[in-house]
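Quiz preparation item.
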């Protein structure tokens, strides 16, 4: 059954949406010119928020999980894109090691790995799972009856990593990370001759969300000049504060002052576009994922009044990493209501191709809250409504629709991620 999607939109957003759809041919040419100069990350997922008056990315993940939540009808697109991505880095590739998150026992994460393995094998690769945890021993996980996932410890000899299966060495041409490296750069992956996808600099020990959005600012300015639109309609305002301690009152005052300035800028835009929503900000760790280290505010005074629970929430993220830098980002209300639940679209890419997506929905969250939290559910984007990319070999009887718009915004974020990795 096709999910019921309702999105109240303003006339300004409708103009933006129609403008993107009408100019899809020129937009695809614009993207092709950009991709001549850069190589895209092997894969990514982009969280979008559609407020009905603007649409923008709020997070770009270069180690995406959740492939199991995609519509299986998009699988041929994913396989085709994977073939192209592998050919670029290792034309004669036949073997690849996929490195998962450490210590995970999440059955849904394992299903994500199974889907990824299926894509890679159908792209012509031999695939094995290898753990970078130095204490790991070979383990078999039963994902479902008859489906066993085997993960092996990775070993290193000279400048190559490999795994041992019985008496055989499995030596890959490439290494694909599905581990975001929050805990730091793994010693075993340093100075190896095999290609690592994405490169180690993409790990959260090094990457910063603020850097991503700084580059996104540049990408969006170029795109907005090309399309002759107000770049704010596809771009959230943001600021940062680093070398901070969430329990230090001076740091909280600085964050409050920056929040006040951002809220003033947002209110000016709301007045211009006659928007009646209450503007808000999202304050989150400048690195990391899994929806950790996030709070929302509508008034700068709320920063100065953070209770112990919220301070604790902001102080530590994944793998016990201490938060010492935050990004203060314009909050984007989500007006996507799917099956009577608040939702947000998440778009997946391999190389520079959109290969599908899903809606993250949450029945216990409001329009201005973080949906990437316990209790969230996923609904695949319907294949028959998608038309994500008109130049990707699909025969769409109807013109590109809102899902095409999602793909455009996601690829702008992908260009920004490309700038991060190639900068």
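Solution:
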């Amino acid at each position: 059954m096709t999910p019921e999607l309702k999105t109240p939109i303003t006339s300004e957003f409708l103009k933006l949406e129609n403008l993107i759809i009408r100019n899809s041919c020129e937009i695809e040419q614009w993207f092709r010119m950009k991709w001549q100069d850069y190589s895209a990350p092997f894969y990514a997922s982009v969280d979008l928020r559609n407020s009905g008056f603007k649409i923008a990315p709020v997070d770009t993940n270069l180690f995406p999980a959740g492939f199991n939540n995609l519509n299986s009808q998009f699988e041929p697109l994913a396989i085709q894109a994977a073939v192209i991505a592998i050919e670029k880095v290792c034309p004669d590739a036949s073997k690849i090691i996929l490195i998962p998150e450490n210590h995970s026992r999440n059955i849904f994460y394992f299903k994500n790995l199974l889907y990824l393995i299926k894509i890679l094998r159908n792209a012509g690769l031999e695939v094995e799972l290898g753990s970078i945890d130095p204490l790991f021993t070979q383990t078999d996980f039963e994902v479902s009856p008859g489906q066993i996932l085997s993960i092996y410890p990775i070993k290193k000899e000279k400048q190559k990593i490999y795994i041992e299966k019985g008496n055989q060495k499995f030596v890959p041409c490439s290494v694909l990370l599905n581990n975001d490296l929050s805990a730091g750069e793994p010693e075993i992956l340093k100075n190896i001759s095999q290609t690592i996808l994405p490169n180690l600099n993409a790990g959260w020990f090094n990457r910063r969300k603020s850097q991503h959005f700084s580059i996104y600012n540049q990408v969006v300015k170029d795109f907005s000049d090309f399309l002759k639109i107000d770049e704010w309609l596809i771009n959230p305002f943001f600021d940062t504060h680093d070398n901070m301690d969430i329990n230090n009152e001076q740091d909280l005052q600085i964050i409050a002052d920056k929040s006040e300035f951002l809220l003033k800028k947002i209110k000016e835009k709301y007045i211009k576009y006659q928007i009646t929503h209450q503007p808000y900000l999202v304050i989150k760790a400048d690195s990391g994922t899994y929806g950790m280290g996030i709070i929302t505010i509508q008034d700068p005074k709320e920063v100065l009044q953070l209770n112990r629970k919220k301070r604790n929430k902001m102080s530590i993220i994944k793998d016990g990493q201490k938060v010492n830098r935050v990004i203060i980002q314009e909050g984007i209300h989500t007006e996507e209501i799917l099956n009577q639940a608040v939702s947000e679209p998440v778009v997946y890419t391999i190389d520079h191709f959109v290969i599908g997506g899903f809606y993250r929905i949450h029945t216990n969250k409001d329009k201005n809250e973080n949906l990437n939290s316990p209790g969230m559910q996923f609904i695949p984007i319907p294949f028959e409504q998608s038309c994500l990319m008109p130049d990707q070999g699909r025969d769409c009887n109807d013109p590109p629709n809102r899902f095409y718009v999602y793909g455009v915004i996601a690829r702008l974020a992908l260009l920004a991620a490309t700038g991060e990795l190639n900068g």
